[in-house]
Amino acid sequence: MIYFNNNHINILTKHVPGPERLNIELTTSCNIKCIMCRGKNSYVKDNNAGKFLRVEDFVTVLNGTDLNRLKLVNLAGNAESLLNPDIVPILNVCRENNIIVELITNGTLLTPQISKLLLGFCSEIHISFGGSTKQTFESIRQGAEFELVCENIRTLSDLKKSTNNQYPHIWLNPILMKRSIQELPDIIKLAMDLGCQGVACSHLIVSSPELIEESLYFHKTECNTFLQKAEVLAKEYDIKLIIPRYFTAESSCDEGNNGHKEAWKNCRFLWNHAILGVEGIEPCGSYKNMDFDGNIVRNRFMDIWNNDWYANMRYMLLTGNPPDICKVCKDPSVKDVNNIGSYFTDEFLPEAIAYAQTLETTHLSKDLELSC
């Protein structure tokens, strides 16, 4: 048992230094329609489509943080950061303030001009990727041209070589699903050919009924096989590889236990990281409804960071009494790989469980037929 006196509580909840990392959403616009994207629906529903963070507001946000502590800005979100019309001045502001940048992009707008701006001070650029073939890639990332994205990646890689720059490290980020898992080894080969440094994979999180059967939860053996092949090739080609944990024989379809571990015990978002949407702060990927004005332009960031709401959330976690929303943390890094709840949004989890039970019944029937 850890005991805190009032002074400890004050420091750990109300006088917390600014975060080391800011995830900043620059726009709610996107130029392609990925089949698994959850952003396109939420933006339209909330009437936020087409908004962007102006460079003046970006500067206001930075000035409201603890710049002595801020180490990195990740330009990401559920849209395409490079569609922000102020992207060039925003990158210049980061460069002038010696702020390291990470960028997540679909790669379609990664022009030579943008690539030159990223040289040297951008630590990593992550290209959202579909597959190793044109057909698979474009069926997942609809509206993107496979050849154009590959050409843009190669141009950035060539610019790095010609200017003797080690950075940015280039990563391909495929979302693993049934239609693309067999292409993962070839994505490793493609990454080497394009001059990339790594491949970072994550499982599909199903948020629409037509994608339920695409989840690799229903194709565990196939998934494990191609993860293993990819690991062998990555080692051979000296490509860094981040993959989910392998499936095991254990599995759970218990709807009451939907794959969440006690992630709140290692929460990074209340002390070290913050997510800033175009219109306001989002404490984390799970919690979006706050009872305070989270507008990061009208309000100084550090005032929000140490307000009563944040202090109360920190207190509850430190004393072992997390709110219900934290008990079902949606951070993918802490989910149980063998639990069906890790792969489906709450809305479609019951349908996925029903499908899993249908498959189990079918397999059992086949086993009985073979034994007769």
TrEMBL record:
Domain Radical SAM core: residue ranges: 16-240
4Fe-4S keyword on record: yes
Signal sequence annotation: none
Keywords attached to this entry: 4Fe-4S, Iron, Iron-sulfur, Metal-binding, S-adenosyl-L-methionine
Gene Ontology molecular function: any one: metal ion binding
Cofactor list: [4Fe-4S] cluster
InterPro entries, A to Z: AdoMet-like_SPASM_containing, Aldolase_TIM, Radical_SAM_PqqE_MftC-like, rSAM, rSAM_sf
PANTHER family: RADICAL SAM DOMAIN PROTEIN, TUNGSTEN-CONTAINING ALDEHYDE FERREDOXIN OXIDOREDUCTASE COFACTOR MODIFYING PROTEIN
Full protein name: Cofactor modifying protein
Organism: Candidatus Scalindua brodae
Gene behind this protein: cmo_4
